[in-house]
Amino acid sequence: TWESARNIVGKKAIDEGGETFRLVFSACKKEDLSKGGHAPQVLQAALYFIDNGKDFCSTVEQSISFATSSNFCPVLVGSIAGALYGASNLKETEMTHLNEDLIKRLSTAATMLAETWNQICLLYTS
Fold first, then answer.
1. pLDDT for the residue 66
2. Could you give the count of Cα atoms lying within 13 Å of 20 in the half-sphere of its Cβ?
């Protein structure tokens, strides 16, 4: 589940990265988020939107509304939400701007990332 994956990565990051990662992975309220472009702030905002999202499109839209073009939060949200919700949950109208070759490349990359993620999870849960 998203929660268990987030906890595994969060614990490992905190163990190795200390205070900065503790702040990034701790629960927060939307009003506590920063629109700054500093990597820990961007990651914290992305995690907030993923944690509170209900589906791919609304989650990405909320992150875009928050960050506008000032940081990479929507990029992270799109990547993580895409992996979390999966391509099968996207409507065809949401992918009309993509050509066949790009869809195949994205699918291949997503499969490789999922396989790597599964290996990481096995490593940290055994």
1. 92
2. 9
DSSP type of residue 97: T
pLDDT tens-digit series, residues 25-40: 676 788 888 888 778 8
Phi then psi for residue 32, to 5 deg, are: -85, -10
Question: Which sign does the torsion angle of CA 33, 37, 39, 45 carry?
Answer: positive
- Dihedral sign computed on CA atoms, order 55, 21, 40, 79: negative
| Rounded Cα–Cα distance for residues 94 and 63 (Å) | 17
% of the chain residues with pLDDT over 70: 81
